[in-house]
Design a protein that fits this description.
The chain is of the alpha/beta class. It has one domain (about 15-135): Trna Endonuclease, Chain: A, domain 1 (3-Layer(aba) Sandwich). It contains four helices and seven strands. A five-stranded mixed β-sheet has the order 1-4-5-6-7.
Length: about 140
């Protein structure tokens, strides 16, 4: 009897979305630099790649879109653009929020015009409505 292996990895999906939205990612980085963030890491040419984290419960790899520091505190940023797989995005946000709270870091979401309602709905669905997205 043949055995079937099934596992899900976030990284390829996120990487594909980043290639489609590289301009918005660059715009977000410029916005953060203007706000005083230093040591910016992003999965974009010219920047160091952020550290990936392994989610042991499901065996998936999660990589934040942008990692930066300001006033000695580390910030995780994730880009919120409409996605065909919102369930995976919700899981990623919950994981990054939990990780940031465990290590006394901060987790923020960056979005743009045309994606506000999608972002707000997603945040309400996962009870993170106290997070106010950065609107660029």
């Amino acid at each position: 009897m043949p055995q079937t292996l099934f596992f899900c990895i976030f990284y390829p999906m996120v990487k594909a979305e980043k290639s489609d939205h590289a301009k918005f990612l660059e715009k977000s980085i410029q916005h953060l630099q203007a706000r005083g963030f230093k040591e910016i890491k992003a999965d974009l040419e010219g920047y160091e790649t952020p550290k990936s984290y392994l989610k042991k419960s499901s065996g998936t790899t999660v990589t934040p879109d942008i990692v930066a520091s300001k006033n000695g505190r580390k910030y995780f940023f994730d880009i919120s653009l409409k996605s065909e797989k919102p369930k995976m995005l919700k899981s990623k946000w919950l994981f990054l929020d939990t990780l940031s709270r465990m290590k006394s870091n901060r987790f923020r979401i960056i979005t743009t015009r045309g994606h506000y309602k999608f972002t707000d709905t997603m945040l309400q669905d996962i009870n993170l409505s106290n997070k106010t997205p950065i609107k660029i």
